[in-house]
Every structure is written in structure tokens, then in C-alpha cells.
């Protein structure tokens, strides 16, 4: 499960993986252990099985089952892989709401994303002089000033357990079983399903490979009215990344040259 996108250290035995956290100020080990324990009971076989944990150690350590496969970040996802991703998400989202409601809320969700996007837009970040980028900023700022983002903070649908991180490195393709595992639950918690889907579709990791998001969503069991919320969350998440990709933005050093321009095109397409 280790890869260049990890924020932790992993050691592998014959059957287990030992995860040592590099940071835990946001309660990451407790969140991951709670999620793995819940998943083992209500959706076994979807994520690593919990084995043991020393959550108050320095660093905290979790031992879990070792999973085969490679992460989908940087991959050109095939039809089969996209279908497997959707199957994993559908199963995750079918965990009963009364079970999910007992989980802690995820730290990254609708209200946090709306606040972050509006705060960044309000700073007037340096995004350079590219006309397309300027157009995207103007369109995005206008959308953020509208009533649409505020509506997203009230969820009319049952909550789901989510990763609260759309990084495609959290999806592990098992070549042998032809399935996808969900890994790295340190930011997980109770969340809005449409938000989680927006995260998967618009996380900046998408520019490292190819994921047909429309095809992915076509395999997701959306409730009536949910598709519109997913679309708006996609706009929101795309804007969050766009606003941080300027020459001095925090996301710029971690992404390839041209990412800002690609993201500007994405924002304009999503905003229609």
C-alpha cells in the first residue's frame, strides 16, 4: 500500500501491514482505527481488516491486514477499474445510516470546503496573467458569491461513511481479484455522499492520470435530486484546487507545470 503520495510509514510482513503516522494532531490514527473497525463489521472485505493498534504511542501505530494491488493514482483507469471503483463506493455508501450516525463527522466536508473556497477567493490569490485563468477566477468568484454554495451545507440525504479525501491514491486495484480496495482512512468520518463523490471526481490527483468521471457516476446509485448536488460539489472542489495553484499557492509545488491552466479549463467547463 505504500507509494510516493503517502503521509505515513508502512512496513510489510507476510500477512500484515504496520502503519506508523508522521503526524497525528488531527486525530488521524483514532479516525482510521474507528473506520476500519466499523468497516470490518458492516462492510468486510472493502478495506484492510484491523489487527491491533497502539493509538497513544509516539508515533501511533496501527497493524492491519496486508492488501495486494497498486494505487490508481497515475493510472489511465480502464472501464473495468472504473466499474470496480463504483462497486466499492456503492457498497461503502450502503452501510446503514444509523450505524454511520454514530461516527465522528469528517474534518473535511461541505461547510469546510465552502469556507475555504470563499476565503481563498477573497484573498485575491496571484494566479498570473493568463486570460483563461483570469476568466475562470471571475466565473468561480461569481459562483462562490451566489446562493448555490451555501445550499450545499445542508444535506437532505442520509449521511455516509467517507474517506473525506478524493485522492486517487486511496483506491487500490487488485489485479488478481479484479476489484478495488479502499485504503488510508485517517481523514474519514461521517459525511455527505454528494460531497464525497465530488471529491473523487475533482481531486487534483486526476491530472496524474485519466479517470472518466462521467462513466464513474453512471455506475453510482444516485437518489433523485442527488446528481445536482454532486455537480455543484464538483464545482466547489475544482475551485478549491484552482485557487491554490497560483505561482505561490500551496498546491503548486506538488503538481506538474500547466496544472493551473488545466484546472482553469476544468472550472469553466463545470460552471458551464
TrEMBL record:
InterPro entries: Aminoglycoside_PTrfase, Kinase-like_dom_sf. Keywords: Transferase. It is an enzyme of class 2 (transferase). Its EC number is 2.7.1.-. Pfam families: APH. Residues 22-209 form the Aminoglycoside phosphotransferase domain. GO terms for molecular function: transferase activity. This is Aminoglycoside phosphotransferase family protein.
Amino acid at each position: 500500500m505504500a507509494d510516493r503520495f503517502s503521509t505515513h510509514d508502512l512496513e510489510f510482513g507476510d500477512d500484515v501491514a504496520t502503519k506508523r503516522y508522521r503526524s497525528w494532531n488531527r486525530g488521524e490514527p483514532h479516525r482510521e482505527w474507528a473506520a476500519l473497525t466499523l468497516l470490518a463489521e458492516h462492510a468486510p472485505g472493502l478495506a484492510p481488516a484491523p489487527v491491533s493498534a497502539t493509538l497513544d504511542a509516539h508515533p501511533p501505530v496501527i497493524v492491519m491486514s496486508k492488501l495486494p494491488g497498486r494505487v490508481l493514482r497515475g493510472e489511465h483507469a480502464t472501464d473495468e477499474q472504473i466499474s470496480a471503483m463504483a462497486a466499492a463506493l456503492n457498497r461503502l455508501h450502503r452501510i446503514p445510516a444509523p450505524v454511520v450516525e454514530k461516527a465522528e463527522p469528517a474534518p473535511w466536508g461541505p461547510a469546510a470546503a465552502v469556507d475555504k473556497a470563499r476565503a481563498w477567493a477573497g484573498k485575491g490569490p496571484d494566479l498570473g496573467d493568463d486570460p483563461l485563468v483570469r476568466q475562470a477566477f471571475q466565473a468561480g468568484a461569481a459562483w462562490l458569491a451566489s446562493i448555490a454554495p451555501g445550499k450545499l451545507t445542508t444535506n437532505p440525504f442520509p449521511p455516509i461513511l467517507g474517506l473525506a479525501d478524493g485522492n486517487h491514491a486511496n483506491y487500490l486495484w487488485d489485479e488478481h481479484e479484479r476489484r478495488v480496495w479502499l485504503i488510508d482512512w485517517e481523514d474519514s468520518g461521517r459525511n455527505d455522499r454528494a460531497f464525497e463523490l465530488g471529491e473523487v471526481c475533482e481531486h487534483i490527483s486526476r491530472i496524474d492520470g485519466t479517470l472518466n468521471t462521467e462513466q464513474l457516476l453512471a455506475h453510482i446509485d444516485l437518489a433523485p435530486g442527488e446528481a445536482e448536488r454532486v455537480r455543484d460539489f464538483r464545482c466547489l472542489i475544482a475551485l478549491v484546487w484552482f485557487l491554490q495553484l497560483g505561482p505561490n499557492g500551496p498546491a503548486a509545488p506538488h503538481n506538474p507545470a500547466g496544472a493551473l491552466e488545466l484546472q482553469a479549463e476544468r472550472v469553466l467547463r463545470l460552471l458551464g
